[in-house]
Amino acid sequence: MNTSLDTVPRVAVVGGGSWATAIVKILCEQSVKIRWWLRKPEDVAHISHYHHNPSYLTDVQIDTHKVEAHSDLKYVLSEADFVVLAVPAAFVQSALQGIDSEDLQGKVIVSAIKGMIPERNILVTDYVEQYYNVPPEQLCIIAGPCHAEEVALERQSYLTIAGYQKETAERFAALLNCRYIKATVNTDLYGVEYAAVIKNIVAIACGICHGLNHGDNFQAVLVSNAMQEIKCFLDTRFPLQRDVNSSAYMGDLLVTAYSQFSRNRTFGNMIGRGYSVKSAQVEMNMIAEGYYAVQSLYQVNQKYGAQMPIMEAVYKILYEKKSAQKEIDKLRKQLS
């Protein structure tokens, strides 16, 4: 790679959480220039002075020769070739408030968000395309089994960059490949993105079942049925020849369903143990994307009618305040 100042890739990262911090760490393994938007000016000042995020993955050292932290989003976006969105889906609209289509013109937009825009019930890539006039060919997503906490520890991880245009996805994947990250590409943009949304809902279901003291045998059956549920929805919504057993689909599902780092599983576990939604959210102090996504997906699926009993059980528990024990008992009879 030519590393002259004129040809070094320029990446804007939007978001100050653990996943955004992990992405910045990965990108710093390459010859890049990064502008990193964080909402709080005090976090920007801390990173600039002490070279680490004061709130998330605090052990990750930030190379400030490559990274410029800033709280002015227009400035962060102004010279970027790639823009990585890494804020919770519920905050995308507020995070991007104040920018317009011109600010994203000619840039590749990469969503690292595994959720849907609440109330609008659309994917993040749909939102960027519809409201900022970004062509589908300039949209990508980051998916695959890759928890931020393991990136911080430099444990071997695998990412999938999905995009309509393979060459565009390959360009961004090249910026992520390093000694502890292997990044591959996939052209099933919407299939991979929806699978990433659904797996968070499944992780909540797994957490609920764990909180209710269901064992490993049941969890395995739940996850295998969930994979069928994901395939059913994708085949109904976006019919396409795809291998749902690959890491972009199944791998992402497995790590979210079982990992100690899964905030969606943690959230579900608290619900299964009797916490209210509000009390679980307050105690976690982190966003479980599946909570918002299940309402959006439930409403979307009213149109398509895919058979999704796990998703429906989670929706009824979280939004209709149904008994977790009773809904999981009903679900048990539908699984095979």
TrEMBL record:
Organism expressing this protein natively: Flexibacter flexilis DSM 6793
Binding site for NAD(+): 91, 148, 263
Protein name as it appears in the record: Glycerol-3-phosphate dehydrogenase [NAD(P)+]
Major localization class: cytoplasm
Gene Ontology CC entries for this record: cytosol
Pfam family, one: NAD_Gly3P_dh_C
GO function terms (MF aspect): glycerol-3-phosphate dehydrogenase (NAD+) activity; glycerol-3-phosphate dehydrogenase (NADP+) activity; NAD binding
GO BP term, example: glycerol-3-phosphate catabolic process
Enzyme Commission number: 1.1.1.94
Residue span(s) of domain Glycerol-3-phosphate dehydrogenase NAD-dependent N-terminal: 11-168
Localization: Cytoplasm
InterPro entries given in the database record: 6-PGluconate_DH-like_C_sf, 6PGD_dom2, G3P_DH_NAD-dep, G3P_DH_NAD-dep_C, G3P_DH_NAD-dep_N, NAD(P)-bd_dom_sf
Record has Lipid biosynthesis as a keyword: yes
Family as reported in the entry's similarity comment: Belongs to the NAD-dependent glycerol-3-phosphate dehydrogenase family.
Catalytic activity: sn-glycerol 3-phosphate + NAD(+) = dihydroxyacetone phosphate + NADH + H(+); sn-glycerol 3-phosphate + NADP(+) = dihydroxyacetone phosphate + NADPH + H(+)
Binding site for substrate: 114, 263-264
